[in-house]
Design a protein that fits this description.
Layout lengths: L12 H10 L6 H11 L15 H34 L1
Length: 89
């Protein structure tokens, strides 16, 4: 925190809760705001943010389900195309 005088700002309950969700252990709201403002230009700022959470597993499950669904659609289209080709011949 800076050595300058404190300033108070009013935020909606929604923004307060969103800031609170981004708060890391031991951080003040001033720290959170400072980090978020600094992150605007730091392309690597998000790396490691999921550490200690189950977010990676959730995203991997979603990704795997998407790949499986895509494979299923590709197989169905391939079978349909083969059937159409056989019907023409």
């Amino acid at each position: 925190m800076s050595d300058t005088a404190d300033k108070h700002i009013r935020v909606s309950l929604e923004y307060y809760e969103r800031l609170a969700q981004r708060r890391r252990a031991g951080e003040s709201f001033d720290d959170v705001i400072g980090r978020l403002l600094a992150d605007e230009r730091d392309l690597l700022a998000g790396f490691g943010i999921w550490e200690g959470t189950d977010q990676r597993e959730i995203v991997e499950e979603i990704h795997a389900a998407g790949k499986q669904e895509s494979r299923k659609r590709i197989d169905e289209l391939s079978k349909r195309q083969s059937t159409d080709r056989e019907a023409r011949d």
